[in-house]
Amino acid sequence: MKWIKNERGITLVEVLATMTIFMLFITLFYQVLIQVVERIDYQQTKEEARQKANYLMALLTDVHQTSITYTVSIDESGIIQIQNGLETYEVDTSPYTVDLFISQQEQPLIINTTLPENKIVDLEVTFTNTEDKRTDSFTFQSKISRLTEAKEE
Fold first, then answer.
1. pLDDT at 96 (0 to 100)
2. Do 84 and 69 touch, CB atoms closer than 8 A?
3. pTM for this predicted structure
4. Tens digits of per-residue pLDDT, 18-50?
5. Is 85 left (phi over 0), alpha (psi -120 to 50) or beta?
6. Residue 80: enclosing H or E segment and its boundaries?
7. Using alpha carbons only, how large is the chain's radius of gyration in Å?
8. Can you give the residue range of the structural domain that contains 109?
9. Rounded (10°) CA dihedral 132, 137, 141, 146
10. Tens digit of pLDDT for each residue in 62-85?
11. How deeply is 151 buried, as exposed, middle or buried, from its count of CB atoms within 10 A (0-12, 13-18, 19+)?
12. How many C-beta atoms lie closer than 10 Å to residue 118's C-beta?
């Protein structure tokens, strides 16, 4: 007697093997996608901190070069205040907490640019994101200098 084989369909084992391979590819794709999204979020957070640091450093440089004496302080809400006699500048650094060191001094500090040791000062700003604990602290360092001598009034 001759057996007739039907090879036009697929077996359950073939369906299960195909589904297993498909699920492996989906899992790998999902893991890569999650890592890419997290990396993009980290880069955006770092770029936002860098923009705030650049603005703060540019403002401090401008005040340092044009003022004889100025005061830098951080209030309890995290706003950095720079006062140079007539004007007060405020920099909102939320959602970050900021540690600001000028020539290794903590706040509040008064800089008198007529003193030789304050002609060039070291500036270090550390931003820590208070909303996202997965991101690191970002530290930016620079030097600010006065191009001309400050004249006392």
1. 83
2. yes
3. 0.73
4. 999 999 999 999 999 999 999 998 888 889 888
5. left
6. strand 79-83
7. 29
8. 12-145
9. 50
10. 888 888 888 888 887 778 888 888
11. exposed
12. 19
Domain assignment of residue 68, yes or no? yes
In a domain, 130, yes or no: yes
Counting the structural domains of the chain, the total is 1
CA distance 129 to 109: 24
152 in a domain, yes or no?
no
Q: Do β-strands 96-102 and 79-83 pair in parallel, antiparallel, or remain unpaired?
A: unpaired
151 domain residue, yes or no:
no
Kindly give, in sequence order, each residue whose CB lies less than 8 Å from that of residue 80, ignoring residues fewer than 6 positions away: 56, 72, 73, 74, 90, 91, 93, 98, 100
Write the CA distances from 101 to 88, 98, 109, integer angstroms.
19, 10, 9
- Rounded-to-integer distance, Cα 64 and Cα 84, Å: 9
Which helix (H) or strand (E) covers residue 26, if one does? helix 12-66
